[in-house]
């Protein structure tokens, strides 16, 4: 492990455009369950995953009904855990790599806004954010508190409409089957093309199109792909990643940053 941490620190220090890709695994040490790990949400409750696959269809068929159900049914404990969560040393380590001028962008699948809370500035929320709403017509995003959702229920005015284009507004979080917002999709592909180092933290890399990003970067042949994960993933098995540092992101990432700072002195 020591050798791999020193190697990752060296690779990062000598990179010209390093980016990080993250998944639910980086947030488990903040008390948020992942999806497919041993105690993952889908692992423990496959029916919940099947229901999640139907959410976007329901929204398209009946946005009013979707909103009424979303605002009236008891909040899933998962969403409650998101609001209470705080960043952990893994999130802070990536924010520090950005402050050191090494990490140029974080592309996260997580909707928990913990990278933002940890101070990461250049952040692409590939599956959106639980803290935001988005117009499905013009793509404009809003903080949730910019709409008085309780009043919209009272006045029978759901779904909320975009003040700019009158399009329908939904949560910014991207459901299964929903297109990735075009601005985030385009910028993420650009970063995957531009990078010469990709640090992939805490993702099982089985959900597309996100899981395409490492493969697109690999096609260039000039990128170093480092995984930090509790377990090997398809990226490890297919040789997409150059090496896996097997461990907890909350422990491994801060050690990499310490090593970067030690060698930069
Ligand atoms: N440190 C490192 N790796 C960890 C840690 C940790 N502390 N905790 C869990 N992991 C690993 C798990 O072993 C697993 O390989 O992180 C990975 C998490 O994988 P998933 O649970 O599949 O999460 P993710 O890859 O983000 O899922 C992608 O699927 O359901 C959708 O939209 C959802 O964005 C999510 C997408």
Write the layout of secondary structure elements.
Layout: H1 2-13, E1 18-22, H2 41-44, H3 46-61, H4 63-72, H5 77-84, H6 89-99, E2 103-108, H7 114-118, E3 123-125, E4 132-135, E5 141-143, H8 149-154, E6 169-171, H9 182-194, E7 197-201, H10 212-220, E8 224-229, H11 234-237, E9 243-246, H12 249-264
Parallel strand pairs: 1-2, 1-7, 2-3, 7-8, 8-9
Antiparallel strand pairs: 4-5, 4-6
This protein binds adenosine-5-diphosphoribose.
User: For the CA atoms, what is the radius of gyration?
Assistant: 19 Å
- What is the strand arrangement across the widest sheet? 3-2-1-7-8-9
Hetero groups bound?
Answer: adenosine-5-diphosphoribose
User: How would a textbook summarize the main sheet?
Assistant: 6 strands, parallel
Describe the structure.
This protein has 265 residues and is α/β, with parallel strands linked by helices. It has a domain at 1-31 and 87-128 and 180-265: Rossmann fold (3-Layer(aba) Sandwich), CATH 3.40.50. Helices cover 43% and strands 15% of the residues. It is built from 12 helices and 9 strands. It has helices at 2-13, 41-44, 46-61, 63-72, 77-84, 89-99, 114-118, 149-154, 182-194, 212-220, 234-237, 249-264; strands at 18-22, 103-108, 123-125, 132-135, 141-143, 169-171, 197-201, 224-229, 243-246. A 6-stranded parallel sheet has the order 3-2-1-7-8-9, with helices on both faces. Strands 5-4-6 form a 3-stranded antiparallel sheet, with no helix packed on it. Helix 11 links the parallel strand 8 and strand 9. Helix 3 (46-61) packs across helix 4 (63-72), helix 6 (89-99) runs parallel beside helix 12 and helix 9 (182-194) runs parallel beside helix 10. The radius of gyration is 19 Å and the shape is elongated. It starts with a helix and ends with a helix. Bound molecules: adenosine-5-diphosphoribose. Adenosine-5-diphosphoribose (APR) is lined by residues 23-25, 28-29, 34-37, 40, 109, 127, 202-204, 207, 229-231, 233, 248-250. Adenosine-5-diphosphoribose is lined by residues 23-25, 28-29, 34-37, 40, 109, 127, 202-204, 207, 229-231, 233, 248-250.
């Amino acid at each position: 492990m020591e050798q791999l941490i020193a190697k990752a620190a060296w690779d990062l220090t000598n990179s010209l455009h390093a980016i990080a890709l993250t998944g639910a695994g980086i947030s488990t040490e903040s008390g948020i369950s992942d999806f497919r790990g041993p105690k993952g949400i889908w692992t423990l409750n496959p029916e919940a995953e099947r229901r999640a696959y139907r959410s976007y269809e329901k929204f398209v068929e009946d946005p009013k009904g979707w909103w009424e159900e979303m605002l009236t049914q008891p909040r899933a404990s998962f969403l409650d855990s998101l609001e209470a969560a705080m960043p952990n040393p893994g999130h802070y380590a990536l924010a520090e790599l950005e402050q050191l001028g090494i990490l140029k962008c974080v592309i996260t699948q997580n909707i928990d806004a913990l990278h933002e809370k940890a101070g990461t500035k250049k952040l692409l929320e590939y599956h959106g954010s639980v803290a935001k709403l988005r117009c499905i017509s013009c793509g404009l995003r809003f903080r949730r508190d910019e709409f008085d959702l309780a009043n919209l229920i009272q006045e029978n005015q759901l779904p909320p409409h975009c003040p700019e284009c009158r399009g329908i507004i939904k949560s910014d979080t991207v459901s299964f089957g929903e297109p990735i917002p075009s601005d985030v999709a385009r910028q993420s592909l650009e970063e995957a093309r531009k990078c010469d180092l990709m640090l992939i933290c805490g993702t099982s890399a089985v959900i597309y199109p996100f899981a395409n990003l490492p493969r697109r970067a690999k096609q260039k042949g000039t990128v170093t792909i480092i995984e930090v994960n509790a377990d090997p993933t398809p990226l490890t098995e297919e040789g997409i990643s150059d090496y896996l540092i097997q461990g907890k992101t909350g422990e491994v990432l801060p050690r990499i940053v310490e090593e970067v700072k030690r060698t930069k002195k």
